[in-house]
Amino acid sequence: MLDTALEAGVSPETYRKIESGRVATPAFPTIAAIADVLSLSLDAVWAEINRPEPALGQGSSRRARKQLAS
Questions:
Q1: DSSP 23
Q2: Closest CA to 42 of 61, 10, 50
Q3: Are 20 and 11 within 8 A, CB to CB?
Q4: Can you state the angle between helices 12-20 and 28-37, rounded to 10 degrees?
Q5: What is the predicted pLDDT for the residue at 51?
Q6: Per-residue pLDDT tens for 19-52?
Q7: Which ranges constitute the DSSP H helices of the chain?
Q8: Count of CB atoms within 10 A of residue 53's CB?
Q9: Of 31, 42, 45, 59, whose CB is crowded by the most CB atoms within 10 A?
Q10: Domains of the chain (ranges, CATH numbers)
């Protein structure tokens, strides 16, 4: 996590806040920089954040999917 933050030019604290959801609307350049470091296209990021949540008891939660992606 520290390496990703530093490589993206984002403070580790800001990165943690984004990852945990404490920053509701991070700046586009910040997301673009993090996506680039993680070799993710912005289209892939957009698709993931707009994915419908499964009903309770069906599949994994958004938090679990996010942890798997890390």
A1: S
A2: 50
A3: no
A4: 100
A5: 86
A6: 999 998 999 999 999 999 999 999 999 998 888 8
A7: 2-8, 12-20, 28-37, 42-49, 62-69
A8: 10
A9: 31
A10: 2-69 (1.10.260.40)
